[in-house]
Amino acid sequence: MDRVYLQHNNEIDFKFFQTPKDFIVDEVPHAVFKGKGNFLILRVKKVELTTWDMVAAFAEFLNIPAEKIGYAGLKDKHATTTQYLSFELKYERALKKFKHNQIQILSWTKHTHSIRMGDLAGNHFSINLYNVDDTKAGRIEKTAYKIEKNGLPNYFGYQRFGRDNDSIEQAKEMISGELFIEDTKVKKFLISVYQSVLFNDWLKERVTMSQEESKFILLEGDIYLSSEGKLFTPSTKPLKDFLEKKVVPTGLLCGRDVYRARDAAREIEKKYDDEFLHEKGLRREALIFPHAIKCKYNKQNSVLNISFTLPKGSYATVFLEAIANKNFSALDAKVNIS
Fold first, then answer.
1. Is 76 part of the annotated catalytic residue set?
2. Suppose 219 and one of 121, 141, 160, 264 were both cysteines; which one would form an S-S bond, judging by CB atoms 3.0 to 4.6 Å apart?
3. What CATH code is carried by the domain that includes residue 68?
């Protein structure tokens, strides 16, 4: 399943690895914690652990169900990541004794309520790119800033679909009735994969038709998301607000109870819609805008460190793909020790 991008530039060949040293992720909370309240907020750093593994370690230490620990999002295992966890205040004394080889508590504060899934503005990334010479370093930086201006197609990255895209085939077989899945969690995951595949295919068509201008083309009937988080269909294309990044067009994650596009936008969207899917539908931003981009080049080691911030739900590897103008896979980001 190919992902295409707005830039026409030739491929830029570099390598990156999802390791604790080379791939660093810091969660950006969506609000300032109040410093008072009945919940304890910990900023924690984990290395080579999934978020679920980390939560399980805290739950086991406190002898409580994992569901009593709040977190905003799932972070990569093969990386150094920081994120926020919430606990009832009564566990403060016990948590001061917590020790784990792969988890470090960085700071403490209090808040009026627990952290819920999605309670984050985005994530800040710091990634080392290897095999980068002087020319590539300049091209990477120039391309990154161009994407910051024109927007990044908000594809679901390769991580969504499993190694070798095996979950895509399972999802299609389940939806068609060829495969029966009893486990509710697995079934829900495969439905989300199915929705994501259709979204990516829709976005690929919209990006392909926009490549000649190197900017995302808006269509009559597009549904937009405002900076206040509201979905709407304007009477005319809101080009000015789009250029000022006040609104972004959205794509369909098919299902029930969701707004569908109209007119010219719907003509394309309906090719990637499944109106019989019972799962609740959503709309997802077609474009996102990376910001806080910084590049630091180490000429001696041919390494470029690129740091940037993305909104929640988007993929750093998609940004790297757009810069390189080629698709990556899980194997590309894996360190070969042999």
1. yes
2. 264
3. 3.30.2350.20
